[in-house]
Amino acid sequence: MGLLTDYLAALLKQAQYRPGEGGYLEGTLPEIGGLLVRGRSFEECRERLQNELELWLAKSLLAHQPLPELGGAGAALQQLALETTPSTNPTEQVILKTVRTILEELRAQRRGGRPEDRPPSQPQAQPPRQEPKRPSTRVSDYVSEVGLGLQVSRNGGNEVEEKILERVSSFLGERFAALEGLYEKLKVAATKGGGEFQYSLASASQNDIGIVTQFCTVLKETGFLKSYTYSSKQRRIYGRLTAEGRMNNFLTGGWLERYAKSVVQLALRRRNLPHDLLANPVLIYPNGDRFEVDLLARTPSKFLMLECKTGNYDVALERHQRIAQDLRIPAKQLIYVLLGIPEQVLDELKNQWGFTFANEKTLEVELEKLLT
């Protein structure tokens, strides 16, 4: 492996894991203060810790920040970072040579080594045995079979930006109970195009204060907040949300779609199910009508549609019921993810509509029921 991947591997060996709240496993790294991830299993926790380390290393190199010394690798990596010119422009930062080098090595590591390290492929003495053709799991094939067209969204950002959005959405989704009050403040500020906000933590527990302040730090580091301070004397947060529209759209609803997608992906991978997953595709009807949905997922035996709502959801229920009928899927395979809605209300909605209703906490359980 290369210097960068060796260094990341050495950091991961120093990781510490401990039981956390709600049955989660927490992972920390003593060498990097403030780094904390949570997972439902050791594998998930370790994967998230590795993702956080990749992002931390990229940012540290770009900013020429000191790295922990591990066998001299820290100094060598800093020398590599000096080959590039730091920039304060986020768009310019993500295309710097250092980040490209990091991501290329990490991708190569996951493929089994750097391309230049692989031996040339050898010709096969005999043609490979033909495997039986498996049923298609492509969403587009299914949509075509029911007589509809499909337009796939191409709104994905670069890899560094994607990691940032995943980090924010995972943090918010997994800790929403403690962050709900702050989120409402952020959402109001976002709908106004950014600006200042305050949030009191006078009645919050020490644990919740820690979660809220950690989240604000994440938002500041990733550019969502232009400024942020916490007054321990007043137990109050003072912040200013960025005026950038794309980030504000993410906070007002896009984050929940991304979080739901990650939960679906994890559930499918845990079962080793072949699958196809499309975010924000547009269904096209023969008469020209077009409807965007949040998420479509297909396995060999199931076709799922997910809709995520952080606010009012009543107005869209009938429309999505018709779409589910047009897709010829059972009502329960239409999953409505409603942020912060109590389980009693979710059960009442399920009895009324027949859909699967979940909130950010129960989505995983409801998916397991559907996939069983």
From TrEMBL:
Gene Ontology molecular function, alphabetical: nucleic acid binding
Sequence segments annotated as region (Disordered): 108-140
Q: Could you tell me the superkingdom of the organism this chain comes from?
A: Bacteria
| Amino acid composition bias (Basic and acidic residues), ranges on this chain | 108-119
* Protein name as catalogued: Uncharacterized protein
